[in-house]
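Need residues for this backbone.
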């Protein structure tokens, strides 16, 4: 593989989050930083929410004579000792250059690339903790699926992170079941990253479809600190230009950081399309599960998936017309591939199917199967319905609306 060019500084990468998916992504990143030391610092910090745990008897590391098996230890200690996340990603060997760190401030210090992979409800609090501790020119990628939908607006998690930290942040999403990725079973993913103009020493080969491109500009792009958000408006964030002796943070760099023989990466510029796909496909998966539970067969489920995909595209083009591309939904892993996976065996599909088969509410299934956790599709369906209803657009999105209105969902407040 050709190198990306000689630079006197290397990118330090930190992964914020260490659950099932967070650890799987951290494994990939650490494998690549170790192999591409011309571009990255080999050591990768992984921030871990500290807790105490014990090696379970089912683990290959269990030893009745070991203190790790008989006494609780901090999770970071166990990860760094066994090079395995024994609680959230058991039986998967992690690279030795991946370091678990319980201090968020220390983990992100000096990192030029931040990878966010944590439950969305913790974004605000953790970003507050990180302020003042990150490089001002850092860039990020959010692996957090979904979007925040209120009655007044749709907010991408990547843009929420960017606005809170004063950085630019893209998104990663796809048909990626964490355990399968960690086991190195083949899969694809989509990274959406639209390099800000001031980063474009080598302009993106796939810029946002609308508006002037770096190629057509005669300005010194590094002197510009403005960039446009996914709605084509000037972002409130004023970015700091990365130093010239650091490799550009662009499509090539992110593909190098995430691509593995078992994890193929396609990089696009459509951050809104990738983010919306990860949210709306969960509503369609609920509908597919309801249809399966009714015993209507595979033809009906295929019809639900087809209509659902069309409504996903329409939603994106209606509310993010300045940046969304239909191809993101119909050609990328983040779109159609993730939809197929979710409607085949994802937990939204499984729980919806069970609720119909047993004639019980979704809430009852959540209590029984998920220990009371809420299905992401349920909360998204409720939020999207409220958003569409306020605009009088229910008839424009019949599947998304019907999925909420039917089948024992709690009443919209």
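Answer:
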């Amino acid at each position: 593989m050709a190198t990306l060019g000689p630079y006197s500084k290397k990118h330090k990468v930190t992964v914020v989050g260490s659950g099932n998916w967070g650890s799987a992504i951290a494994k990939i990143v650490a494998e690549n930083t170790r192999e591409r030391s011309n571009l990255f610092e080999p050591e990768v910090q992984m921030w871990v929410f500290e807790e105490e745990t014990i090696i379970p008897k089912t683990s290959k590391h269990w030893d009745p004579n070991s203190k790790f098996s008989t006494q609780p230890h901090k999770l970071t200690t166990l990860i760094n000792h066994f090079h395995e996340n024994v609680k959230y990603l058991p039986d998967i060997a992690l690279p030795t250059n991946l370091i678990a760190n319980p201090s968020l401030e220390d983990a992100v210090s000096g990192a030029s690339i931040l990878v966010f992979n944590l439950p969305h409800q913790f974004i605000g609090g953790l970003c507050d903790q990180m302020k003042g501790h990150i490089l001002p020119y850092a860039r990020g990628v959010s692996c957090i699926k979904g979007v925040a939908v209120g009655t007044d607006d749709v907010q991408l998690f990547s843009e929420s992170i960017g606005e809170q930290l004063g950085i630019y942040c893209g998104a990663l999403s796809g048909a990626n079941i964490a355990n399968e990725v960690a086991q190195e079973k083949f899969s694809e993913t989509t990274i959406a990253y639209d390099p800000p103009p001031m980063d474009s020493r080598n302009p993106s080969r796939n810029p946002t479809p609308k508006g002037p491109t770096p190629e057509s500009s005669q300005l010194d792009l590094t002197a510009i600190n403005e960039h446009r958000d996914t709605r084509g408006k000037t972002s409130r964030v004023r970015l700091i230009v990365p130093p010239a002796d650091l490799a550009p943070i662009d499509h090539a760099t992110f593909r190098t950081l995430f691509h593995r023989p078992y994890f193929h990466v396609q990089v696009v510029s459509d951050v809104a399309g990738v983010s919306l796909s990860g949210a709306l496909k969960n509503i369609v998966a609920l509908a597919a599960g309801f249809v399966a539970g009714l015993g209507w067969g595979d033809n009906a489920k295929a019809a639900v998936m087809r209509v659902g995909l069309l409504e996903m595209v329409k939603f994106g083009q209606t509310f993010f017309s300045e940046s969304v591309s239909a191809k993101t939904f119909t050609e990328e892993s983040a779109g159609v591939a993730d939809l197929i996976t979710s409607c085949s065996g994802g937990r939204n599909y499984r729980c919806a199917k069970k609720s119909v088969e047993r004639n019980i509410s979704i809430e009852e299934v959540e209590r029984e199967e998920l220990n009371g956790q809420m299905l992401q599709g349920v909360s998204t369906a409720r939020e999207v319905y409220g958003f569409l209803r306020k605009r009088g657009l229910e008839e424009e999105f019949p599947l998304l609306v019907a999925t909420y209105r039917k089948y024992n969902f709690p009443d919209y407040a």
